């Protein structure tokens, strides 16, 4: 009954493995099972401890049973998003102690059970968003997840957040809550989490915005609020809160503001003294810029140093005021980015008050030359070091250079993707300019308008046919996508370290193009000069070497001998002779297929029908199907009293027989016993035996062997002698 039980278990496992291969073919080849988008209605059976990643996303799974994942004890990632899961047995994940990522997002879960996560001690990333639950229950479903790093939850039905819902979580790298329809928030619900590096919350209910922010002042480093319509609050954001605060960056995305709410927010946010960065992305301003500048000024200075505005939409853009009165609020700013927001000018008086600004980015706006004199007026932006005016509507490079020369500390200027078209011979630039980006500006040539102080110059994607400027300090030069036919000369740019000339019309290089003290002093190796050629030669040589090794191995049966040697070494560990109770045969017969008629029809009949009969082992009849040939030979020889070799010219020429001789050479003759019996069907010289079987040749030269007589009267004596040898 034990054998029968083992058989049933093996049969069941085999059936499960076949079912797994059919349901998810990729599981058969690696530790990663990608079963996504295969129309599965259930988790396939046959998962084993070998699987570390299981992707079942975008199927039709509705229920997870206790036994579905029981054997997948080494699973690290389980992806179940975008199914139809509405129920999970409480102990379904009990065996997944090594699981690090669990994604159950976009399913139909109406409740979350703490029992699901009770044994997921290694879990770091949990995704539960996009389900049907309206709350997280009365307590915390995450209390056992001590190693959790990121948590994503919520859905359009999520409406209540209670105290204790996040008990057990102390530190999170990222927390994302879709609370767009949250209607009730119990004060302190998020306060139990001590540290959150980045929190994203989708929130439309402006009435609970302030309560959530107050709970996060001491825990969140970067707070990102999405979809909010910023309210006008009666109470300040910071009330009865103790210092120090943790929040350093506040982002509004897809939010909307009014003149009144933004004025109030500027005042209230000043109380958060740890706040260093403000960001608004894809937001809408419903107003004309009529802000309460007097109240803003009375509230004191802000601690914010970086402001980023990307793609802001101002409904009454044509009526928007120039923010007069905000001068006192901007003198501490160090970085200002306003991208894709239709900026066409900055009033001179406002620009002069950006006294600490180091970085200014007006990429993708509507700046034009005739307004640039106002934007970069005298004494404006006095500390500015980096200026990005790329992708605007600037037309005159001469005016551009003239206006930026008013910026005494400017060293980095990007004016790419403007349509200058022409370039003058002489320009006036800032004295300390080191980096200049003129790529994609439609300039047809380069002139001495380019300042000699540059260390980096980018003139890619223009219509340049030559480059002959003398730039003694230049270290990097980018000339990609031009019409160059020759390289720039080396002498005018002696300090050049890097140059890019991709996608030009270069066809040859002259000696003069490489002249220069530094270039001449460089001694490049063969690999550096001809990298592609050397790599190609190495690949060809490696390929030829592999080809030769394969050919030699095939010719001399190296693989076979390696496997045979390994089998012999394994066999050497076994006892020299099998115990008598394990002997099944009187003799194992080794013969050529061409001699099978004599062996099977004459010798087998004579010996197995004798009285008493002899038990012979023949490879055709007695080898175990599916078992490796060497193992069959070893087992048969070990279970046989003698080994009978039927020698002939066919035997010596047969590859099969050579392999059996090889093993007999290792196994039998190495033991110095008399287990081998040689029968010659036809006269054969010992020198016909392969030289590497020296011991077999020695036996033929020193010991008696039986020869099959052609005369019938002598054949009876042959059988008698053979039977005596088998019995000895």
Automatic annotation (TrEMBL):
UniProt-listed Gene3D superfamilies: Ribonuclease Inhibitor (3.80.10.10), Toll/interleukin-1 receptor homology (TIR) domain (3.40.50.10140)
Lineage: superkingdom: Eukaryota
Keyword Signal: yes
Topology class, membrane: Single-pass type I membrane protein
Gene Ontology terms describing biological process: inflammatory response; innate immune response; toll-like receptor signaling pathway
TIR domain: residues covered: 583-726
Disulfide bridge map: 27-33, 348-377, 427-449
Family annotation (InterPro entries): Leu-rich_rpt, Leu-rich_rpt_typical-subtyp, LRR_dom_sf, TIR_dom, Toll-like_receptor, Toll_tir_struct_dom_sf
Signal peptide location: 1-19
GO molecular function, one term: triacyl lipopeptide binding
Sequence similarity: Belongs to the Toll-like receptor family.
Name of this protein: TLR21 protein
Organism of provenance: Ptilonorhynchus violaceus (Satin bowerbird)
């Amino acid at each position: 009954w034990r054998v029968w039980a083992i058989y049933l278990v093996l049969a069941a496992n085999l059936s499960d493995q076949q079912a797994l291969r059919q349901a998810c073919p990729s599981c058969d080849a690696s530790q990663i099972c990608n079963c996504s988008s295969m129309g599965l209605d259930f988790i396939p059976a046959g998962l084993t401890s070998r699987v570390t990643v299981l992707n079942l996303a975008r199927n039709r799974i509705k229920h997870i049973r206790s036994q579905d994942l029981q054997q997948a004890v080494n699973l690290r990632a389980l992806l179940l998003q975008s199914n139809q899961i509405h129920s999970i047995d409480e102990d379904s994940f009990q065996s997944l102690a090594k699981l690090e990522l669990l994604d159950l997002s976009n399913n139909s879960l109406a409740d979350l059970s703490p029992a699901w996560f009770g044994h997921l001690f290694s879990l770091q990333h949990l995704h539960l968003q996009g389900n049907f639950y309206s709350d997280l229950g009365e307590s915390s479903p995450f209390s056992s997840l001590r190693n959790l790093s990121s948590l994503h939850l919520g859905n359009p039905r999520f409406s209540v957040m209670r105290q204790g819902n996040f008990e057990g979580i102390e530190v999170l790298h990222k927390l994302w809550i879709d609370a767009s329809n949250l209607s009730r928030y119990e004060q302190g619900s998020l306060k139990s989490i001590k540290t959150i590096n980045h929190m994203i919350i989708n929130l439309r209910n402006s009435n609970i915005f302030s309560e959530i922010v107050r709970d996060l002042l001491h825990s969140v480093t970067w707070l990102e609020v999405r979809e909010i319509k910023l309210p006008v609050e009666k109470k300040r954001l910071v009330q009865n809160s103790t210092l120090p605060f943790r929040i350093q960056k506040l982002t509004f995305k897809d939010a909307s503001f009014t003149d009144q709410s933004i004025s109030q927010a500027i005042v209230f946010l000043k109380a958060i003294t740890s706040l260093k960065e403000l960001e608004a992305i894809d937001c809408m301003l419903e107003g004309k810029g009529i802000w309460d500048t007097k109240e803003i000024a009375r509230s004191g200075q802000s601690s914010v140093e970086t402001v980023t505005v990307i793609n802001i939409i101002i409904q009454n853009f044509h009526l928007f005021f120039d923010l007069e009165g905000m001068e006192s609020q901007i003198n501490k700013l160090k970085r200002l980015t306003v991208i894709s927001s239709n900026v066409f000018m900055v009033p001179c008086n406002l620009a002069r008050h950006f006294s600490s600004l180091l970085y200014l980015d007006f990429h993708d706006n509507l700046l034009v030359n005739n307004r640039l004199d106002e934007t970069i007026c005298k004494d404006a932006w006095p500390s500015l070091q980096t200026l990005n005016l790329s992708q605007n509507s600037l037309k005159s490079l001469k005016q551009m250079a003239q206006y930026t020369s008013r910026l005494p500390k400017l060293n980095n200027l990007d004016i790419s993707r403007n349509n200058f078209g022409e370039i003058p011979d002489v320009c006036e630039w800032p004295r300390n300019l080191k980096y200049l980006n003129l790529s994609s500006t439609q300039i047809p040539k380069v002139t001495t308008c380019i300042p000699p102080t540059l260390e980096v110059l980018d003139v890619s994607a223009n219509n340049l046919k030559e480059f002959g400027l003398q730039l003694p300090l230049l270290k990097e030069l980018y000339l990609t996508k031009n019409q160059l036919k020759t390289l720039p000369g080396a002498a005018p740019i002696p300090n050049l370290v890097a140059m890019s000339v991709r996608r030009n019309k270069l066809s040859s290089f002259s000696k003069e193009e490489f002249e220069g003290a530094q270039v001449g002093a460089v001694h490049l190796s063969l690999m550096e000069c001809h990298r592609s050629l050397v790599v190609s030669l190495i690949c060809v040589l490696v390929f030829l070497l592999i080809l030769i090794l394969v050919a030699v191995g095939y010719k001399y049966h190296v693989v076979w001998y390696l496997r045979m040697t390994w089998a012999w070494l394994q066999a050497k560990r076994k006892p020299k002779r099998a115990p008598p109770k394990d002997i099944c045969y009187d003799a194992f017969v080794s013969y050529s297929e061409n001699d099978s008629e004599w062996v099977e029809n004459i010798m087998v009949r004579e010996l197995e029908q004798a009285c008493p009969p002899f038990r012979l082992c023949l490879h055709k009849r007695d080898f175990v199907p599916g078992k490796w040939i060497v193992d069959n030979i070893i087992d048969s020889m070990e279970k046989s009293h003698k080994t009978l070799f039927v020698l002939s010219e066919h035997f010596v020429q047969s590859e099969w027989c050579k392999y059996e001789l090889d093993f007999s050479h290792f196994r039998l003759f190495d033991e110095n016993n008399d287990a081998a019996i040689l029968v010659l069907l036809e006269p054969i010289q010992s020198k016909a035996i392969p030289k590497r079987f020296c011991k077999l040749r020695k036996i033929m030269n020193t010991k008696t062997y039986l020869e099959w007589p052609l005369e019938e009267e002598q054949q009876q004596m042959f059988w008698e002698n053979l039977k005596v040898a088998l019995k000895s």
